[in-house]
């Protein structure tokens, strides 16, 4: 039997101990990377599904008629308040963002009378057609506003109490197209605007005495 020299054995042992550790199998690294990717893809999928569900819910909710209400007491008789609901120049004073109201016929304040209403909100312009649906001077006015995104019916009621006017507005809005998705999200902002407009109307009427 051949015996290896002692120095050869020592040298081989030293080389084996100083050699770098073997790299982890490629399959283990690939498995770890694959797990991270799968987890990320699942997260994206969940977010996507939730977003789709939210859009669908908003679409159906926005497809229903949305109702708004505002009310104010004005220290002036109905005969003093009513022109602010029909006169274009007076309307622009208290209706926020209304830039122009242009009659489309010569019917004046009669049922069927139409006007174009131009709204300019921070540079975003929207044109609507306004039509008088019902009218009883100094008592009530119902107007329909129409555009591609919605149809809104505004019902104003005036009643006198101790020389003052109780003015109420019931508004029904039906949204169309993409506006159906955004309608539920902006409902509170619309309500706040109606109330702010009514407060401005009150101030305008009372200061005009």
List the helices and strands and how they pair.
Blueprint: H1 6-18, H2 26-62, E1 66-74, H3 78-81, H4 83-86, H5 88-94, E2 98-103, E3 114-121, E4 124-136, E5 140-146, E6 150-161, E7 164-175, H6 179-207
Antiparallel strand pairs: 1-7, 2-3, 3-4, 4-5, 5-6, 6-7
Helix pairs in contact: 2-6
Transmembrane segments: 40-61
Organism: Blastopirellula marina
Protein name: SRPBCC family protein
Your description of this structure?
Keywords: Membrane, Transmembrane, Transmembrane helix. It comes from Blastopirellula marina. Helix 2 crosses helix 6. With 209 residues, the protein is α+β, with helices and mostly antiparallel strands. The chain is elongated, with a radius of gyration of 36 Å. It has six helices and seven strands. The N terminus is likely disordered. It folds into two domains: 34 residues; 143 residues, START domain (Alpha-D-Glucose-1,6-Bisphosphate, Chain A, domain 4, 2-Layer Sandwich). Helices cover 45% and strands 32% of the residues.
